[in-house]
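User: Here's a structure from my thesis project, written as structure tokens. My advisor, Dr. K., wants to see whether a designed sequence matches the one we expressed. Can you design one independently, without my sequence as a hint?
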């Protein structure tokens, strides 16, 4: 079986497997080929792959020959036209948003595994790419904010006078939000946090942050741990609390997402208008519309003296560690679909294989994606 590692498009610095991870596959009798320059942006040169036993190929050759393809990003139509029917493609394809593209892949007979659809279960933790990458994004959001913020984070008592600590507000306490809290606390900021899931209150408090309570959130206990849409009454109460907290904040990190839907706008223009000039917002939900009324994806805009950075791909700015963790997630998942003789063995009785598979045998097999296309 030939497995191929593709070079990502410009702006994506990660690579699906680093050389030592490709070597782990080779030890399992898989033949690994790498597109020229695939690892360069993650500091893995072609030579580092060849010494581990990988072949180097052009993109076209690789797409035509590989039985299994690793690409973090969606493939273009030109790319998929070159694939053999039955080729397995693995990456982070966000099929709940890109369902029309994925429907085309089904028609071409491609078998698609989208790693962002791995069930959030205990057994799948070692394969959970959303967690490994969100952890990086949460950390980097704080470091980026500290770089942009024109003042200190920690409280300082010096002979020349004292400095008050930065006030941080974090909206959404999932994986990224919790890492952002921990990182902000390490830098000495005072942190307030808001999330619609009351279950996260204890985790937030254990990290030394204050949880902002809003009564009456919709029950999300049956949504696999994810957030659900809220009632208008709740949204209004929430809006007021967030606006009050935003007025006091120096830095806001927003991470609130609802899978398959546009991100909720938590900072309206009215809330942005009461913020202090010089304050910073890092919006990690920018790619799905953003958590502020003024977010522009992949841009930093200044509104009313507030800098709003829209970036949902901060993991790409730490490509060596991000690729290392993604690659480990991928290798752990591959153990479920490649047997000891390097043959592909798809067991759809396994909930992780079933949940992650989006297209197979000419059909969309994931129920949520199928419902969107219908
Ligand atoms: P996410 O990226 O989908 O969303 C980020 C956070 O935003 C969530 O905490 C969500 O509740 C919050 N949010 C959504 N709408 C909001 C709103 N209107 N106002 C404020 N906050 C809002 O979340 P995630 O980090 O992917 O985590 C999703 C779930 O998966 C969590 O319950 C998490 O604990 C769980 N999880 C489980 C495992 C596991 O068991 N293997 C691993 C990781 C995460």
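Assistant: Designed independently from the structure alone:
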């Amino acid at each position: 079986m030939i497995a191929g590692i593709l070079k990502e498009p410009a702006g994506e610095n990660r690579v699906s497997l680093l050389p030592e991870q490709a070597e782990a596959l080779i030890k399992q009798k898989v033949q690994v080929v790498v597109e020229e320059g695939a690892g360069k942006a993650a500091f893995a040169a072609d030579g580092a792959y060849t010494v581990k036993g990988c072949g180097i190929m052009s993109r076209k050759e690789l797409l035509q020959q590989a039985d299994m393809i690793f690409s973090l990003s969606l493939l273009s139509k030109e790319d998929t036209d070159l694939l053999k029917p039955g080729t397995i493609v693995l990456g982070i394809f966000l099929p709940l948003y890109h369902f029309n593209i994925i429907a085309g892949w089904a028609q071409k007979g491609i078998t698609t595994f989208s790693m962002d659809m791995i069930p959030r279960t205990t057994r799948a933790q070692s394969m959970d790419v959303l967690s490994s990458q969100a952890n990086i994004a949460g950390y980097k959001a704080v470091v980026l904010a500290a770089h942009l913020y024109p003042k200190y984070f920690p409280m300082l008592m010096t002979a020349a006078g004292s400095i008050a600590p930065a006030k941080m507000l974090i909206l959404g306490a999932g994986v990224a939000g919790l890492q952002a809290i921990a990182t902000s606390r390490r830098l000495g900021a005072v942190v307030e946090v808001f999330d619609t899931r009351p279950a996260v209150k204890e985790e937030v408090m254990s990290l030394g942050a204050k949880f902002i309570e809003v009564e009456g959130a919709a029950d999300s206990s049956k949504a696999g741990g994810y957030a659900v849409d809220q009632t208008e009454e709740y949204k209004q109460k929430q809006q007021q609390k967030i606006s009050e907290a935003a007025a006091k904040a120096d830095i806001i990190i927003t991470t609130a997402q609802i899978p398959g839907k546009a991100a909720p706008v938590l900072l309206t223009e009215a809330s942005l208008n009461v913020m202090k000039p010089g304050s910073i917002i890092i919006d990690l939900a920018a790619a799905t519309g953003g958590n502020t009324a003024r977010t522009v994806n992949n841009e930093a805009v200044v509104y009313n003296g507030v800098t709003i950075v829209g970036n949902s791909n901060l993991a790409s700015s730490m490509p060596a560690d991000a690729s290392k963790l993604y690659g480990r997630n991928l290798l752990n998942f591959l153990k479920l679909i490649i047997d000891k003789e390097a043959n592909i063995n798809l067991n759809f009785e396994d909930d992780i294989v079933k949940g992650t598979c989006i297209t197979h045998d000419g059909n969309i097999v994931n129920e949520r994606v199928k419902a969107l296309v219908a």
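When you compare it with your expressed construct, this may help: The chain has two domains: 2-117+319-364, 134-317.
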